Amino acid sequence: MATTTKATHPSGDNRFKLLDRAINVHHASGNALIEVLHAAQGIFGYLEDDILVYIGHALKRPLSQVYGVATFYNYFRLKPAGEHTVVLCTGTACYVKGAAQIQAALEHRCGCKFGQTTPDGKVSLVQARCIGSCGLAPVAVMDDDVAAKLTVDEAVRRVGAFMQATEEVAK
Amino acid sequence: MTVEELRELAEKERARQAGFGKRVLYCSAAGCVSCGGNATRDAFKKAIRDQGLDESCEVVGTGCMGLCGKGPLVKVAPDETLYASVDAAAAERIVDEHLKGGNPVEAMALDTDAPFFAEQTKIVLEDCGRIDAMRIEEYVAVGGYEALAKAITELSPPEVIEEIRKSGLRGRGGAGYPTGLKWSIVRKATSEQKYVVCNADEGDPGAFMDRSVLEGDPHRVLEGMAIAGYAVGANQGYIYVRAEYPLAIERLKLAIKQAERAGVLGNRILDSGFSFRIDLRMGAGAFVCGEETALLRSIEGRRGRPKPRPPYPSEKGLFGMPTVINNVETFANIAPILARGGAWFASIGTAKSAGTKVFALAGKIRNTGLIEVPMGIPLRRIVYDIGGGPPEGAEFKAAQTGGPSGGCIPAEHLDLPVDYESLAAVGSIMGSGGLIVMDSESNMVDVAKFFMEFSMEESCGKCVPCRIGTKHIHGLLDRVSRGEATPDDVALLEELCVMVKETSLCGLGQSAPNPVLSTLRFFRDEYEKKLRPAETFAGGVAGEAK
Ligand SMILES: Cc1cc2nc3c(=O)[nH]c(=O)nc-3n(C[C@H](O)[C@H](O)[C@H](O)COP(=O)(O)O)c2cc1C
Ligand code: SF4
Ligand code: FES
Ligand code: FES
After folding, report:
1. What is the pLDDT of residues B147-165, one digit of tens each?
2. Minimal CB count within 10 Å: which of A69, A119, B215, B374?
3. What is B467-504 written as a DSSP string?
């Protein structure tokens, strides 16, 4: 059973070994469902149906429950993220300092809404409620880089650079 | 480790630190890192090496120092000179003149007698910004785990609870429930298994005090939880921390490992008969999971939906067992209370609201950051003395406290003492401690709509008044802000707010209308200014028919 699994996935995908390890750490307990989903998202980037089925089996929880939990929490992604991620804080401090204008400008530049990824899969726009740097509002996290006291122009410039960089790589 | 060994460890670390003539403490918290803190750190390290000062100067990363808006901040110990906006060039100059030359760079140092510092009282944040959060030795060196040792070796569990009760400490997670009372209920419950849970979900947008404590002084929270475990008879604790705080998670993991290795967590703590383990559980981005019953279900691996109370978690909590659930800041107050006594704590603050409160000060205000003030301090002192008032060209309009569950306090109430009761009297709440200053640029209808959108999106959908009500309220606010509403709409808005408040199952729905009711109360004219002109009401001449 799951507690003693070796390389189990028929696809031979080695990442499942990592997932098995995360499951075993929690003794394949159903209580650890959220922890295991976190681990899976860390390993695979997002939670494909296949992975949810696999986890359901391993933790002996019905798929409906696994799916219910995965969709209840905002943090879990059921679709792949773009090459770049822009997390814009839309918490109160950032809102008071003009995050809404930045949001509108970025949606315009990317041609997609927050919560979505540009059609070419290059930039994901993500909204965060507060990333804890309110003293430096408005704030966004561009990939791993925290941009403080952000302006509309700067935000659009940075995202533009993301889009161009990937366009050039593609060429 | 025995209690003696704990004290030896403290001695050894103090001696080690004294071995360095100077310690350069740089803020390694999110705020300062996002304005160039890492480059500052590197510049210090390089300059110290270049000048051959390795032996006499240590560079140490700490938690938030408070004045986040002026980061990166650097403090030089032991003389406690504080420098703001330290870039690489400034770092070189400090190394040259202060560390090497022995003269603080007066021109760049902050005046620590200024009201921003002088008006604060630090209990929860006393070590934040003073110690390296990644080394348990530094926490022990400033007296860490002494309170736990005292509890285990000198006090019986009821005596610990009595001390907490005497302190008058009330929960810092929002509702302000007396902590001693909560603990005594769990203590009295007859059950083999009990739990201690730390609520580190901090879902309020605009609040980052819990995060700062977790990142800057994690051992303080672990110590508070272990004392709670001893007091109520629990041997297992959980910290439920939001996944959006990766640095806090990393530091907590490290702190737990260190504490276990040192024998202040785990089996037979400090060679006593008391054992207590702490595990981490990660949240996953649902605001409602901060609500205690939802949080417990989330720890159980389920969807975080609230349950009707009673039964309260103190009777039937995690896995159906009696559970203490407290906020991060609540736990952070425990060790100082035991070390210095409940009476000492009760002497700070007001009769009904003892101690201090940490606020995240942000918005249209000069000094943004993290502050800790005695309860009962007038709001004006926070905004004008500590915060420095609104920046040039802006005028104070309102202070928003309590986030989406709170309200806006207008200028006429600036002299209000900040405590649980006074805030409630003007229709706001302490909440977790977000304090956001707004000026005339903020439109209060939009502010209300902003919070209502938050509550609407975060509603778990379990009960109808909240699920449907927040949507309707949001829709009405939208009509008002677009200039399409009639006086009838405003009447309906108020009615709906009261209905949602009174009939929702959990605190989310019960408090969701607060920002609307509060802005209606103090800024009604802003709603009325936006109503459709009277002559168009009857026939729907302008805009669509109703
Ligand atoms: C919708 C909602 C969200 C909450 N979010 C938090 C939170 O993020 N952190 C917290 O400590 N308490 C939060 N609370 C309060 C908790 O339910 C609970 O009262 C608190 O953890 C008790 O700890 P205390 O007595 O130390 O305050 C929230 C309550 C509600 C209704
Ligand atoms: S009040 Fe809202 S969040 Fe609370 S249980 Fe009802 S629907 Fe869920
Ligand atoms: S509100 Fe944006 S960082 Fe806190
Ligand atoms: S983050 Fe550095 S002072 Fe607050």
Report:
1. 999 999 999 999 999 999 9
2. A119
3. HHHHHHHHHHHHHHHTT---HHHHHHHHHHHHHHHHH-
Taking only residues 98 to 127 of chain A, the set having a beta carbon closer than 8 angstroms to any beta carbon of chain B reads: none
Residue type, A52: L
The residue of chain B nearest to residue A42, with distances taken between CA atoms, is B243
Q: pTM higher than 0.90, yes or no?
A: yes
Establish whether residue B329 lines the binding site of ligand 1, counting it when its CB lies within 6 angstroms of any ligand atom: no
Nearest by Cα to B497 from B411, B427, B421, B435: B427
CA dihedral A36, A41, A46, A51 (to 10 degrees): -30
Ligand 4: which residues within 6 Å by Cβ? B 27, 29, 31-32, 64-68, 71, 73, 369-370
The tokens describing B156, both together, are 């019986």
Burial annotation B195-230 (CB, 10 A radius, 16+ → b, else e): bbbbbbbbbbbbbbbbbbbbbbbbbbbbbbbbbbbb
CB-facing half-sphere around the CA of B210: CA atoms within 13 A = 34
CA angle B310, B315, B317 (to 5 degrees): 90
Q: SS3 for B419?
A: coil
Phi, psi angles (nearest 5°) of residue B379: -55, -35
Is B206's CB within 8 Å of A91's CB? yes
Whether the Cβ atoms of residue B1 and residue B270 lie closer than 8 Å to each other: yes
Nearest to B38 by CA among B69, B71, B70, B81: B71
Q: How far is the CA of B217 from the centre of ligand 3 (A)?
A: 21
Measured at the alpha carbon of residue B519, what is the angle toward residues B517 and B521, in degrees to the nearest 5? 70
How much is the ipTM here?
0.83
- Contact of B130 with B142, CB cutoff 8 Å: yes
Task: Return d(Cα A43, Cα A14) in angstroms, integer.
Answer: 10
| pLDDT one-digit tens code per residue, B265-303 | 999 999 999 999 999 999 988 899 999 999 999 999 999
- Token digits of residue B399: 């202070």
